[in-house]
User: Fold this.
Amino acid sequence: MTKRKVYGYLLATFMLWGSLFVVTQFVLGKIPTFTVAMVRYLLSYIALSAAARGRQKETVEKGDRKYFFIVGFIGYFVAVDFQLLGTKYAGSSMASLINSLNPVFISVMAVFILKEKLTKEKIAGLALSMTGVYLIIGHGASVSLPGILCSFIAVSGWALMSVISRKISGKYSSLTITRYAMLIAALCNIPTSLLEIGLTHPAVRVDLPAALGLLYMGLVCTAFTNMLWNKS
Assistant:
């Protein structure tokens, strides 16, 4: 795959993820957090399973199962659930801004886990990214500490998942990796969703706009974008 095509995939991914934060904030006003995550991953798993029909089935080797679990549990269950909480408490603009630090966290973790070299160009780019985020957060932006903390946990989990996924991305297709990861995340979110509804008794309003928002989040911003991300 050419670098131009990879950059095209990443550009499309980031543009769609940018819209995700706005839609998420709207949907979370009607449906509780972990229930949104559960439905989002179930929709994504169903869509990816449909896309996998007719293709040669890939068998996951026993030694690689731990990597699939890390991708699904830490990357999609922990990180994305905290991303939803960050969006809920800090707002879509602040959450998406902190999320833009993903390349910084990924590059640093890749140095320690994958032994990648941190070049002068990368260091300069990382410094610019961190400076930009500091200037916006530190000057005039409304700050929600719980929301910012949740967003940073989300970024850390996503970065770890992105680095770990490199260990299996050469052996399995992006469709297989994403599909199994979505299943793990959906299963993990079922008990948290039931606990959330049972303990807090939130008012759930699944009207047409909320349903369309969930479909957009599950099919476009989760199934499609995460497959592009893993492929890239």
